[in-house]
Amino acid sequence: MEVVRIPPFELFYEEHKDPVFAHLRRLLGQGAEDAFQETFLRALRAYPELRNGRHLRAWVFTIATRIAIDETRRHRPTTPLPDDFLPETEDGLPPHAELGPLTDELPPKERAAVVLRYGFDLPYEEIAAALGSSEEAARQAASSGVRRLRERSKNS
Amino acid sequence: MTSVSPELDTRFRSTAAEAGLLDVAYDVVESPLGELFVGISDRGLCVISYEAEPDLQVERLARGFGSRVLRSPRPVDPARRQLAEYFEGKRKQFDLDVDLRLARDFGRTVLEELGRVPFGEVTTYGALAARAGKPRAARAVGTIMNRNPVPIVLPCHRVVGANGSLVGYAGGLERKQQLLRLEGALLA
Predict the structure, then answer these.
(1) What is the pLDDT of residue B126?
(2) Is A51 touching B (CB cutoff 8 A)?
(3) Which of A71, A78, B4, B128 is the 20 to 30 A CA-CA neighbour of B87?
(4) A142/A149 Cα distance (integer angstroms)
(5) Pairing relation of β-strands B24-29 and B69-71?
(6) Helix axes A9-28, B54-65, angle to 10 degrees
(7) Distance, in angstroms, between B39 CA and closest chain A CA?
(8) What percent helix, strand, coil does chain B show, rounded to 5?
(9) Is the Cβ of A29 closer than 8 Å to some Cβ of chain B?
(10) Was domain B6-87 assigned CATH 2.40.340.10?
């Protein structure tokens, strides 16, 4: 895979801060500001370890997603997710108000794939980069995650 | 698209510096000589440049000091304040740590000697070379002055030719004159 130079953090931050904030806003509403700060502080801590600048958007979105999921779990009773959080999927899975907690029990890889695909609408290529796996594996993780969720909703 | 408010942006930039996560914090500082690009590393002042266009400087700093370069005004405040005092004629000596890690061997020795040339005085390239232990290296000293990472604070403007001519300055001769005039080292 082609290795892309890691840009200075200033350029990385300027390029991604608005989209990351918009997504956190969509997920968390008013709580987005703290999550935004936490996301970029975490990115800053991990930044020296990065070896490839190719999929930085997926990388920072993954960090933001994890933080948002943890945040929704902490505040579940008081801050429900907006209803439009989970768009209707091609599998006909109903839009779901609480993707974060809903996916809690999925294996981590499936959970990340589902959230990135259906919560953030990322293409599989970027999800693969975020998960450190192939595009095919990312696609499979998302679809088996969705299958698992569907089975669980049937049983409950 | 929802965008980050200036308050949130400032908050992140300050917190990043306070958490000690930056290789270099920088800001653009106003001065009578025009805008100055000023960078602070964990060891101290590492760059002052008359070339205030950040993109180029940011890339250069990332190569030299590490990729975590971020505009963050607060760490720059002590340098900003001392520069303002200097330009107002209220300060003759800077009290700032300087990070010379990118300068090697003779270059470093020369820059350290340069830091001892007092306010309002001038010396020559040859005299500075001699003080750094290589009396015949006047020309090399000229090159080192030209690449001085922190002009003004390390006063390369106080170094002139043996015949008293100003010779050169990375920020342009006009700025060199302005600085020497400010320090009362030039009569006209």
Answers:
(1) 95
(2) no
(3) B128
(4) 11
(5) parallel
(6) 100
(7) 13
(8) 40, 15, 45
(9) no
(10) no
The residue to which tokens 């049983």 are assigned: A155
Query: What's the CATH code of the domain at A120?
Result: 1.10.10.10
Asked whether the beta carbons of residue B21 and residue A7 sit closer than 8 angstroms, the reply is no
Q: How far is Cα B12 from Cα A4, in angstroms, rounded to an integer?
A: 26
CA atoms of A39 and A59, how far apart (whole Å): 11
Q: Which residues have a Cβ under 8 Å from the Cβ of B137 and sit 6 or more positions away?
A: B106, B129
Residues counted in chain A: 156
Whole-structure pTM value: 0.79
Strands B24-29 and B36-41: antiparallel
Question: Where in chain B is CATH 1.10.10.10?
Answer: 105-182
| Helices B105-114 + B138-146 axis angle, to 10 | 80
Both tokens of B1, joined, read 């698209």
- Decide if B186 touches A, using CB distance below 8 A: no
A3 domain residue, yes or no:
no
CB spacing of B4 vs A17 below 8 angstroms: yes
Write down the ipTM of this complex.
Answer: 0.91
Architecture field, domain B105-182: Orthogonal Bundle (1.10)
Task: Give helix A124-131 / helix A135-155 axis angle, nearest 10°.
Answer: 90
